[in-house]
Design brief:
By secondary structure, the protein is an all-alpha fold. Helices cover about 75% and strands about 0% of the residues. Helix 1 packs across helix 6, helix 6 crosses helix 7 and helix 8 packs antiparallel against helix 9. It is elongated, with a radius of gyration of 20 Å.
């Protein structure tokens, strides 16, 4: 079998992946600073200095790029959560997760805009983030340890209700904090977020 042809030391697949990363980088910058309306094919092509044909070889639409940017920002946040310590118990582990979130958004407020603010006003991201929320909760269970099974609903309907309730309250709290209208420390924010989680999950359990 012949080896893949190289151009400047890269295969065709490598070049395609590089172009995708370039477009995601620019898409993240545009989405994080100007919102969904700023993410246009023309703007992405102008900043990457690529031909428009490469955009449509990589993404089906502008919305496809926006979702891919959202997923990448979310995935990088989740990767930071993998190192959470569980020896101190469930409440301490959840608190650490919220401190990780706060630091992640503090480092780059554009990340908060992408994951929290833009889904409030854009139909595509609103549907996508709503669909992702129960999955995200399920992904946290193995990170938090066996004790998480005692509070995270296993029933799909209960999980959907819990995800919607938590998303609404936590998004509001974190956006107020990122925008500077909630003048509390990162540690105080995490404490409040933990209290919200336990209160709302308890409410879902009581419904059963």
């Amino acid at each position: 079998m012949s080896s893949p042809k190289l151009w400047r030391g890269q295969t065709l697949k490598d070049r395609s992946l590089d172009r995708r990363e370039q477009m995601l980088d620019v898409g993240e910058e545009l989405l994080g600073t100007g919102g969904v309306s700023a993410v246009t094919t023309r703007a992405v092509m102008r900043q990457t200095n690529l031909s428009p044909r490469y955009f449509y070889e990589t993404f089906d639409s502008r919305e496809d790029l926006v979702i891919a940017v959202y997923d990448r920002v979310e995935s990088r946040l989740f990767e930071r959560m993998r190192g959470v310590h569980t020896a101190g118990g469930l409440r301490a582990a959840i608190r650490e997760i919220f401190e990780i979130c706060a630091r992640y958004f503090e480092e780059d407020p554009g990340r908060a805009r992408i994951l929290l603010r833009e889904p409030l006003g854009d139909d595509t991201l609103r549907r996508h983030s709503a669909d992702r929320a129960p999955t995200f909760l399920r992904m946290l269970i193995p990170i938090l340890g066996a004790e998480a099974d005692t509070i995270v609903p296993t029933d799909d309907e209960d999980l959907a209700i819990a995800a919607a309730a938590l998303s609404g309250s936590l998004v509001s709290v974190y956006l107020e904090w990122v925008d500077g209208r909630l003048g509390v420390s990162r540690e105080r924010l995490a404490t409040a977020a933990v209290a919200l989680v336990f209160a709302q999950l308890e409410a879902v359990r009581q419904h059963d």
